[in-house]
Design brief:
It is globular and about 55 Å long. It has eight helices and ten strands. With about 260 residues, the chain is α/β, with parallel strands linked by helices. The protein has one domain: Rossmann fold (3-Layer(aba) Sandwich), CATH 3.40.50.1360. Strands 1-10-9-6-2-3-5 form a seven-stranded parallel beta sheet, sandwiched between helices. About 35% of the residues lie in helices and about 15% in strands. The protein binds fructose -6-phosphate.
Length: about 260
């Protein structure tokens, strides 16, 4: 796993945007998209490069990591709407080629299985962007989720509901369930890039990067992936022990 430590959220966004930019210009066809606050600096930078530097996303396929269950279609906080506002509206990505699980479907269990099959049929995802929850979740795979899970119906922890209450009018409005790509599904991607900023992510980052591989910290599954990069600002890196080593690696990186 590669650990990149930068000064702030904008710098982290630039590093991740560089990775996506390079992949897209080198022929990547499929992107995996996270929602929430963490990737916003990435998406702003990608939108800028599209606008100012001709970076094109035409023809690309994109898959969302997850979706709340029970929000009516078109709800502004559904992840389908969030990604449209935060990214798709600002690129030449074809909106019909940005897929996510349907959280309003009558049968979420069948929807989860079908979504996994679509990802497998169109995958592997070339670059998967990830955030991390303060409890170590990725997607909505909460602590103790199977490290090999496929896309499934999950119950959100109270911590995650509290953390996400900022997006809703009242904390009770945060859904209790979601469809999420499983950890096994996420790890099918060729390249995992996780971005985390802020002190509130420091404990989760330390557990994911330097703790044991354990379902209690779902993001620790990145330790098993052959190509994973974790991009953190100094606040999110503040509980890491091996920061000197990560800086040494970054300063002496051999280019392929
Ligand atoms: C959202 C997702 C989640 C978030 C995580 C962090 O699609 O997959 O794992 O990345 O909850 O959320 P923020 O970035 O809002 O702190």
């Amino acid at each position: 796993m590669e650990i990149v430590i930068v000064a702030n959220a904008d710098a982290a966004g630039t590093v991740v945007a560089d990775i996506v930019d390079h992949a897209v210009r080198s022929g990547a066809t499929t992107l995996g998209l996270a929602t929430g606050s963490s990737p916003q600096s990435v998406y702003r930078e990608l939108a800028r490069r599209h606008r100012d530097e001709g970076l094109t996303f035409a023809g690309l396929q994109a898959f969302l990591l997850d979706e709340y269950i029970g929000l009516p279609e078109g709800h502004p906080e559904s992840y389908a709407q969030v990604i449209r506002r935060d990214l798709v509206d600002h690129l030449d990505l074809d909106a019909d080629r940005v897929l996510g699980p349907d959280g309003a479907a009558a049968d979420p269990f069948a929807t989860a299985i079908a979504y996994d099959e679509v990802i497998v049929a169109n995958g592997p995802v070339d670059v998967q962007i990830l955030g991390i929850g303060a409890n170590g979740h990725i997607g909505f795979n909460e602590p103790t989720s199977s490290l090999k899970s496929r896309t499934w119906v999950t119950t959100l922890s109270e911590q995650t509901r509290r953390d996400n209450a900022r997006f809703f009018e009242s904390p009770e409005d945060v859904p209790r369930h979601a469809i999420t790509q499983g950890l096994g599904t996420i790890c099918d991607a060729r390249y995992l890039v996780l971005i985390a900023t802020g002190e509130h992510k420091a404990t989760a980052i330390a557990a994911a990067v330097e703790g044991p591989l354990a379902a209690v910290c779902p993001a620790s599954v990145l330790q098993m992936h052959p190509h994973a990069t974790v991009v953190v600002d100094s606040a999110a890196a503040s509980r890491l022990r091996l920061t000197d080593f990560y800086k040494t690696v970054a300063d002496h990186k051999l280019q392929t």
